[in-house]
């Protein structure tokens, strides 16, 4: 198994899980009474919050709506397509090797 295949095996599920966690954060943001530090909500909050803190510093809420999880869903989807899609960089490298 080559290094490219290992990267594909790690990045594919990682990007999928992060996308799912950011989507869960979007849904959780619809209910302001959710305590993100309590179980089971902390499962989605703890891994995503470091990314969201940085994004909130760059992109202010629009109309009182925090769009940072939406931005990260787009970033994760874009990275997954660029790296692992049918014409992705790692996919093409694995075919050559």
Question: Keywords, please?
Answer:
4 helices, 97 residues, single chain, 70% helix, mainly alpha
Task: Describe the fold and architecture.
With about 100 residues, the protein is mainly alpha-helical. It has one domain (about 5-95). It contains 4 helices and no strands. The protein has helices at about 5-30, 40-60, 70-85, 90-95. Helix 1 (about 5-30) packs across helix 2, helix 1 (about 5-30) packs antiparallel against helix 3 (about 70-85) and helix 2 (about 40-60) packs across helix 3 (about 70-85).
Walk me through the topology.
Layout lengths: L2 H26 L13 H17 L9 H17 L4 H8 L1
A few lines on this structure:
This protein has 97 residues and is an all-alpha fold. The protein has helices spanning 3-28, 42-58, 68-84, 89-96.
Total helical segments: 4
Radius of gyration: 16 Å
Helix percentage range:
over 70%
What is the tally of beta strands? 0
The termini sit apart by: 10 Å
- Binned strand content: under 5%
What's the number of domains? 1
How would you sum up the global shape? elongated
Structural class: mainly alpha
The profile of the biggest β sheet is: none
| Order of helical and strand elements | HHHH
Low-pLDDT residue intervals, each spanning 5 or more residues: none
Summarize model confidence as the mean pLDDT.
Answer: 92
């Amino acid at each position: 198994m080559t290094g490219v295949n290992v990267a594909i095996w790690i990045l594919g599920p990682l990007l999928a899980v992060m996308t799912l966690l950011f989507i869960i954060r979007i849904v959780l943001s619809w209910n302001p009474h959710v305590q993100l530090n309590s179980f089971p909500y902390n499962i989605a909050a703890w891994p995503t919050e470091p990314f969201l803190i940085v994004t909130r510093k760059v992109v202010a809420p629009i109309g009182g709506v925090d769009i940072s999880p939406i931005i990260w869903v787009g970033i994760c989807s874009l990275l997954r397509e660029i790296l692992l899609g049918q014409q992705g960089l790692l996919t093409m490298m694995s075919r050559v090797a």
